[in-house]
Write a structure and sequence with these properties.
The structure is a homotetramer. Chain A is α/β, with parallel strands linked by helices and about 325 residues long. Chain A is built from 11 helices and 9 strands. Chains in contact: A-B, A-C, A-D, B-C, B-D, C-D.
Chain lengths: ~325, ~325, ~325, ~325
């Protein structure tokens, strides 16, 4: 059965895995593990090992790590520090650095370009731009003054860019990034983006990190054409948080559940294909172009962008008690 | 059957009327008329005449006029002028002014307080505050220089306020308005607010005007406690545009349709009560706190706030070729 | 000599005092004291005791406390907490509460309305609105759930409002506040506003608190008509930070110094009156409507609004380790 | 006498020319002409023809055209259209296109990258980013659908980018642009930037266009390293509007005038060198980091960005009655 039979609109590998497992049981070529980290935080890892598995999952081979933290968007300064640290740890592991440098207590001396994808003007899509706003940018200081400016400690060269979306620039993100990467020669790129989830309970409570770059059509805007090592020229780590669910998705899911419920109770007249078709027929085309988002999305984006930029600051510049401040 | 049996989450009287008519045929005490105005614009009027009808409709007696214009949120300067003019005409008719003054070509010399309800920081709820930003405010000029400042023409005293939502102020809107009205003595109040609709196709394409004030729980925030002549002290005209649909509403509607479709086709085993209960059981509690909104909500709010402030400027200050400019 | 001979454009009593002392020595009816508080923080107090002194100082009788902290706008989370605490201490002393309640470690159970004066859309004038954005608002929670919502501890009723400036509302601030105070009955009002200083070195580094309310023409906007106990109906504490200097002021000051320098060195031909006139003649009328502000004013306003809202939160709600979070 | 003797902090060639002419009379190698265009609009042209003249003027050889329109920042929709048209005409003349294509009524089929320089977060520096926000971007549409999408008319490929300032990105603008230009191959680049003037009366009322690119240190931020054909790879047209004057500049100018006035009247004891030194000594170092800007800078930037983006839309896409709308 091909991918198109699964109109799963999700940017989370974890959700594709859940769906696939539910439908077909264990999938060959996909490794999955889950680990609680205290305070309700759960870290899951999906590794897609083969091309066949990649096809079934509808996303490229590679490692997808998900941090789920139910309280992520609630206000509690201390807790966020925990998640920032968790994020920093996982990110450091994923960076293309030597084994010794994967320890967060070790200094790091790499050159990283952080890319804030999405549209600054549309709140649920503004996560990437806002994270870049909060980053501790060091490249220009190191270029001008050297390590002297940082008491001779090991400091990574951090640069950042908010390329904008195609409707604003007329250019593909990949065109802008390829150019900037060629000129400024970072060791790797980290993209930050708002994602679409399938399950509303994940909105604002989940961070996905992957070493595969970003697949086309991700996010709620149209960041077209893959950003990955092949297209950009250096390794691309992608970090994202789901902030929206497609309106059509939640309706479709609800209807599927309903049909299942009715079938089980008293009819069982419809087979799965018929059920899907019925549900699709009834799906209003007016749902296109609509998304579902939490009422407090403005506050969520503010908090999430702080949490993630802290995580990036710690991963790239080391674990100091104080990051960049507010 | 009481109101609570209809968990219709809509701020549009037109939608309540549609639903009621569908379920029960014509409702006594509710008058309804519809009139096309060219360019696809349709103006409908719902008049609730009796207390019984008010109960059935779940909203107070009075007149509710709705302007529907499918292209309202698309970009076309000329077209918006049309809608602004239509809005101004209807508004002028609804104002508590003399019959002679209802003619838009006549000058007007009233004192109006425009209230931008909602939360400036949450895009789909920011319509009211943004409209007040674009108004042509004259009260302070007239108070200081008199009509001399306007070439001795008749000019209304226009004042405006953005009271904020209760979570920001700790006060009910009605407390703030009652105080401000007592001190500044406007002839009437016009509130502007973002509304919730039931039908996604109305998002950003419908303007409702009513002479009944605003009923509790309207809008997407919690503008609690009615704003009307009784509570505020002067007549309250309310103007609103739906910008969101509750996530639970679209799912519930979809499921109801599905059940109906299945019943009709091959079972008819469930009566209406059973169908509603089934649909309610399956409704995820996680949908609470989520809303559905167009992807281009930021642009929509910008355009709508311009269109509506123009309508208000024309209604209150007369039909000059140029309003306040950009 | 009357006030008008001193075209001192400053909202800081401290600067009026400095100028007066420089020109005439000690002024009767004005008491002045200064106290270092560590970390470079200096707290000065000007008390205007008589009507004559009020005339000479060009501002009403009362107490004016100034916190000067050179590093206030630099980034250092810990330091700001110090200033917030200092601000809370001074503010608690100034509140119209019983002697016992002036101790910051004591709970407080008053009802306070915080007013963010100024224009949210003009960065250097946005301090007041931004402070209200960051406050911990409790009035609506206490009204609905009582002290139960706060573990039965003593909690003040805090409400907040951003009335807007007259060009936006058509109303005087005093009209809005008088109305809101009558309806909501706070024990006192605290206004927060951006101020104009005379000396550029005070920009963003000074907080003034006074129990006299706000005098007309203060701030960079036109918040006309005094806000004080007489006009508003309850005591008015005013808190402000200078964010701009009039362009004409810095030029005038520079020219005065230059004339003095030249006179002293080789001419002494001009007496003071002639000097002032010369300087005034040369003052370009084009300087009207211009102000001088730091290049990083956007960051400064962000930090200052956080610092001040923290100070207010601590003063009104007690000294908990965590205020409202981010 | 070298450039450094003239600490003229201005980005306007017109002001350098005025100062030079005042001090030394006509300068060899600089051609100057001025032409009124009605409605108080004046267009002046400074052409720097030789390397010596470039040295004296402190800016590269090339053509600098200035549009002065006293009413530019006032509200009057019709008038702005005039200026947008004037701007479009001058810009079309300056573009590296064939002679036939310099006629504004002719279609144009070039590929242009518009660069919004400056810092979006600092109001007086936000002109460039805001202009790009309002542009009619076509490149992605033409790339996907060809001219078919525009009724087969000649349409230029317009792309836009807001690179951010070095403190936000860690990269020089020139690095970003060089990369983007290499990847996307525009025929030329047009930069838009906020400038510093010397004379306050030019703030917000003057547009400068030049075919020389941008010289280092221009603007109020630090857009370092020249952007020109040599560094970027294609011709660079620069467009700017002064939005600030250095605080030190207005004070220094005022003092110089004062000294001149005093010298002429009764002393003449100081020669020019002594005067300058005196004035410099008295210049407060605290003026560094401060700028002078109009009180209504937020409104000015909004209007100017609209006016300029309209001018760019007309120049690149032809003179249609309606540009992009609001």
């Amino acid at each position: 059965m091909q991918e198109e039979s699964y109109p799963i609109r999700t940017d989370l590998a974890l959700e594709s895995q859940e769906r696939l497992q539910k439908d077909k049981g264990i999938v060959r070529g996909v490794r999955f593990s889950e680990e609680p980290r205290g305070n309700g935080v759960v870290v899951s890892t999906v590794i897609i090992e083969t091309e066949n598995a990649a096809k079934a999952m509808g996303r490229p081979r590679g490692t997808y790590v998900t941090i789920e933290a139910p309280e992520m968007i609630e206000e509690d300064a201390g807790y966020h520090r925990n998640i920032s640290m968790e994020l920093a740890k996982i990110l450091r592991q994923m960076l293309p650095v030597s084994k010794a440098e994967r320890d967060l207590d070790k200094g790091l001396e790499v050159s990283a370009l952080i890319v804030g994808l999405g549209n600054r003007e549309v709140t649920p899509d503004a996560l990437g731009p806002r994270v870049v706003d909060n980053l501790f940018i060091t490249r220009h200081i190191l270029n001008e003054f050297g390590k002297y400016a940082f008491a001779d400690e090991d400091v990574s060269k951090v640069s950042g860019i908010v390329p904008g979306v195609m409707a604003q620039t007329g250019m593909e993100c990949v065109e802008i990034l390829r150019g900037v990467v060629k000129e400024t020669n970072p060791d790797f790129v980290i993209t930050v983006d708002a994602l679409a989830a399938r399950n509303v309970k994940r909105l604002g409570r989940t961070i996905q990190l992957t070493d595969t770059g970003i697949t086309p059509g991700s996010g709620i805007g149209n960041h077209r054409n893959a950003l990955n090592q092949e297209s950009v020229g250096v390794p691309v780590i992608s970090l994202g948080v789901p902030t929206v669910v497609d309106a059509a998705t939640i309706v479709s899911d609800a209807m599927t559940e309903l049909i299942e419920a009715m079938s089980l109770s008293d009819l069982e007249k419809l087979d799965e294909r018929e059920r899907r078709e019925l549900s699709r027929e009834l799906l209003s085309p007016q749902l296109n172009g609509l998304f579902v988002t939490p009422k407090n999305i403005d506050d969520s984006i503010k908090q999430l962008s702080f949490l993630i930029s802290e995580g990036l600051n710690i991963a790239l510049l080391g674990n100091k008690e104080e990051g960049k401040g507010i």
